[in-house]
From TrEMBL:
Isoamylase 1-3-like C-terminal domain location: 6-70
Upper classification of the organism: Eukaryota, Viridiplantae, Streptophyta, Embryophyta, Tracheophyta
Pfam family name, one: ISOA1-3_C
PANTHER family the UniProt entry points to: GLYCOGEN DEBRANCHING ENZYME (PTHR43002)
Species name: Kingdonia uniflora
InterPro entries reported for this sequence: Glyco_hydro_b, ISOA1-3-like_C
Official protein name in the record: Isoamylase 1-3-like C-terminal domain-containing protein
Amino acid sequence: MTWHEDNWENFESKFLAFTLHDHNLQEDVYLAFNTHDYFVKATIPSPPAKRRWFRVVDTNLGSPDDFFPKGVPGIESITILPLILQFFFKLNREDM
């Protein structure tokens, strides 16, 4: 797991982002949560060579457009709406 948090000392921070790493399958998952009452812009970590992020869940969008089973490629940054919205990205090889 890799934490993407630079504000641990701020006990009022309500944003959390992290990457879960699966070294056996060579797939990573990035998740971000925002419970502030304002927007938070987050930069997704740079993928390794010949890999890219695919957006799988985006709760900024209404149902059923918030889930992408095969993922949407080409995401580099996100703006997370306030109040318990989340993003879920899966790291895949470019040739998939």
